[in-house]
Automatic annotation (TrEMBL):
CDD domains: MnmA_TRMU-like (cd01998). Its EC number is 2.8.1.14. NCBIfam families: PRK00143.1, trmU. Catalyzes the 2-thiolation of uridine at the wobble position (U34) of mitochondrial tRNA(Lys), tRNA(Glu) and tRNA(Gln). Required for the formation of 5-taurinomethyl-2-thiouridine (tm5s2U) of mitochondrial tRNA(Lys), tRNA(Glu), and tRNA(Gln) at the wobble position. ATP is required to activate the C2 atom of the wobble base. Gene3D superfamilies: Adenine nucleotide alpha hydrolases-like domains, HUPs, Translation factors. GO terms for biological process: tRNA wobble position uridine thiolation. GO terms for cellular component: mitochondrion. This is tRNA-5-taurinomethyluridine 2-sulfurtransferase. It catalyses: 5-taurinomethyluridine(34) in tRNA + S-sulfanyl-L-cysteinyl-[protein] + AH2 + ATP = 5-taurinomethyl-2-thiouridine(34) in tRNA + L-cysteinyl-[protein] + A + AMP + diphosphate + H(+). Residues 327-407 form the tRNA-specific 2-thiouridylase MnmA-like C-terminal domain. Keywords: ATP-binding, Disulfide bond, Nucleotide-binding, RNA-binding, Transferase, tRNA processing, tRNA-binding. One of its GO terms (molecular function) is sulfurtransferase activity.
């Protein structure tokens, strides 16, 4: 059964790899995704057309309500990103689309569904698998926003609107804000600090953001739910929030899901001195800082590192072990949403900003130092626990999100 599954997975991946070579996204130049999407030179006005990405949840549903009340001509669009007919990771896509249709019927706005399963596999899922196989922990949500929602979907909507001869805006239910007051399009944090999603939008370029609206950016989540109940969307409010990755499904454990696609052998779990303390199930199943689920002695063990070459999982005892903390990292593939700040235009140029290495982490002052055109050193004023290669480091100037990069190396003194 395992051999049959691995063979089927290999065939599927070769097939989609061939599609990827034919349909992969265009190159990224200076942090901007090349596309047919033309930047907007003005601000949205009542009476304009808006295409709203809808998921069937409360955030996008209330976004539809607000946009229509403000006088926009709203059309809902549902993205189908995962093929549920032949995958074990089950999404509730059909149920969600029925909820989108119900909300749109209630508000008397049109809606349609667009299939992005091929693009999602090529540009998000395949890259996610590749990263896990290399022993790093990627962030598919950041990739999906850049490549699919604010990439392929926005491009498709822009082409259809330009054909119709009218300027059309694109909206989502993200908790973030857009500021067009200075002649540029800035991405700002959402007013509700507990729900701010600018971290996940940090790889979306200014060209795309210039056509975007975030109707919920100024609202707290509690008010959004109140508005939904006021408009009779009780069933939508009661739906559980989507907190995980779509392709995993609601009941699947992420490591079990990945094991269907990744062939990674088990190996030794070792302490800092190289002593074997147990066995790991495959390096892809572990994230820096998380529990290692290794039973050795009376201590609880945590993941401090991965030695991909020797297939060893490096573990330390105790949640506050010094090896779990670092204050310096190097990031690659850096994207500046509005262009590189002038302080960083030359090698070794530096700038002090606010930084985060994960969603909902409190921001910490950090110094950004340029190493090459796409690599930067980031040094935080205080150490951070559990920094993982492959995740995104994002920086802000106050509420203004400037961009970020992919963590490539971490300076952990005791490893």
């Amino acid at each position: 059964m395992l051999a049959h599954r691995n063979a089927a997975t290999s065939i599927a991946r070769r097939f989609f790899n061939s599609l990827y070579r034919l349909h992969a996204s265009k190159p990224i130049i200076s942090g901007k995704r090349c596309s047919h999407t033309l930047p907007s030179k003005r601000s949205p006005s009542p009476g304009d057309s808006v295409i709203l990405a809808m998921s069937g949840g409360v955030d996008s549903s209330v976004s539809a309500i607000l946009l229509k009340e403000q006088g926009y001509k709203v059309q809902g669009v549902y993205m189908r990103n995962w093929d549920t007919s032949d995958e074990r990771g089950v999404c509730t896509s059909e149920e969600d689309y029925r909820d989108v249709q119900s909300v749109c019927d209630t508000l008397d706005i049109p809606c349609r569904r667009i299939d992005f399963t091929k693009e999602y596999w090529n540009q998000v899922f395949q890259k996610t698998l590749d990263d896990y196989e290399r022993g790093v922990t990627p962030n598919p949500d950041v990739m999906c926003n850049r490549e699919i929602k604010f990439g392929a979907l926005l491009e498709k909507c822009s082409i259809s609107s330009s054909t119709a001869g009218a300027e059309t805006w694109f909206a989502t239910g993200h908790y973030a804000r857009i500021d067009r007051s200075d002649g540029i399009t800035k991405l700002l944090r959402g007013m509700d600090a507990s729900k701010d999603q600018s971290y996940y939008l940090s790889a979306v370029g200014e060209q795309a953001l210039s056509r975007v609206m975030f109707p919920l950016g100024h609202l707290p989540k509690t008010r959004v739910k109140e508005l939904a109940l006021h408009h009779g969307l009780d069933s939508i409010v009661k739906k559980p929030e989507s907190m995980g990755i779509c392709f995993v499904g609601k009941r699947a454990k992420f490591a079990d899901f990945l094991a269907q696609y990744i062939h990674a052998p088990p190996g030794p779990a070792v302490d800092l001195q190289g002593n074997i303390i147990g066995q790991h199930r495959g390096l892809f199943a572990y994230t820096i800082g998380q529990g290692a689920h290794i039973h050795h002695g009376t201590d609880r063990w945590f993941v401090a590192g991965k030695d991909v070459t020797s297939n060893k999982l490096i573990c330390v005892p105790g949640t506050d072990h010094p090896s779990l903390f670092a204050h310096r990292l190097t990031a690659r593939d850096w994207i500046w949403i509005n262009g590189e700040p002038p302080e960083l235009n030359q090698v070794n140029g530096s700038l002090v900003l606010d930084g985060q290495v994960r969603y909902r982490q409190s921001s910490i002052k950090c110094t950004i130092t340029k190493k090459t055109n796409s690599h930067y050193d980031v040094e935080f004023q205080s150490p951070i626990r559990g920094i993982a290669s492959g995740q995104n480091v994002v920086v802000w100037n106050g509420d203004w999100c400037l961009g970020g990069g992919i963590i490539d190396a971490i300076d952990t003194p005791t490893l």
